[in-house]
Amino acid sequence: MATIGIAGAGLVGRLAAWGLSRAGHSVEVFDPAPDALPRFDGQSAAAFTAAGMLSPMAELEAASPEIAALGLASLQLWPGIAEALGVRSCLALEGSLLLAHRQDLGAAERVLSRLRASGLAQAQPLSTAQLAQREPALLPGLQAWSLAGEGLIHPVELMAALHARAEANWHWKQAIVAVEPGQLQLSNGETRRFDWALDARGLGAKPQLPQLRGVRGEVITLDLPGHGLVRPLRLLHPRHRIYLVPRSRDQLVLGASEIESEDRSPVSLKTAVELMAAAHSVMPSLAEARIARLDRNLRPALPDNHPHSHCEPGLLRLNGLYRHGWLLAPALLQRLLQQSELASLNDE
Ligand SMILES: Cc1cc2nc3c(=O)[nH]c(=O)nc-3n(C[C@H](O)[C@H](O)[C@H](O)COP(=O)(O)OP(=O)(O)OC[C@H]3O[C@@H](n4cnc5c(N)ncnc54)[C@H](O)[C@@H]3O)c2cc1C
What we know:
alpha+beta, eight-stranded mixed β-sheet, 8 helices
């Protein structure tokens, strides 16, 4: 049994706290947040704002095959994690859809050719009848492709379940200023010693990882009773990259802007108009949806937009998960926990 100090109670911190405490280690987590709850004020963990798309293949639109392969590895791990947490219903892997308006086939073809070149799983074209049968809520006549095995997760519920199930000592309102091998330095000057320290501070790790930057993302939660959308979808469009994620029978999340800025101020009119117009163009019934919440946050990213993971005796770091945190965290953390021989996220 090892003692472990974790800086950050976002996605990485909570998943690690759960995996490590489950393996019998003594875990303490430190975070400047007042408590474990989401606030939707642009200040809390990016993990709460995320739409929860788990779409490794669709991410190839802008990401590398390495990211897609890590994502595919995470998709193998999520069902076991969700099951063990007792929230299997918060994960759906029934596939996702790529959509394009006929006039935008050029933009779509660029993405499809990246998928083909990756040599990973392929997009299956759907006929008009197949699309109408699978997703009757969508505009008839759209070009559509199906990506088997992709899906969605409910971030807020998973964050709550990880906090509830991790047998850790949670220290709220406690910022960590430095993470070093075997120790965490608190903002009050105190130094806490552990066998292992894990840096999971997201953008908060910037003082020690100066290349980190925040990439602003804005999302809109929409209420539309009985909306009928089954799978998450992504619209391939020359200007507006949007996705729609069904959260429940009556709620969807629409995302997301991607702006090179660390501005945490509320959602702009421009983003709201663009996202909603593009979503309405593929799902006409959204005209009657009600705007339940507008939220924004910063994705922690490195210059190459690839994650940074580091393991040396007494010290683990996992950061720069950018727009793929929910997609990549299980595979990245599994690799780190196995390298350090501390734990495994599955029961093998
Ligand atoms: C708009 C938006 C949409 C997204 N959609 C998706 C999606 O659909 N699919 C997907 O896979 N990913 C998505 N993401 C990305 C995902 O949310 C992030 O990659 C993920 O949250 C990163 O996890 P993290 O634990 O590194 O950081 P975070 O989740 O941000 O957690 C960092 C934690 O560290 C704490 N902290 C900060 N400073 C300190 C300090 N000094 N000491 C101690 N603790 C500190 C913070 O309070 C926070 O709790 C989205 C992100 C955004 C913003």
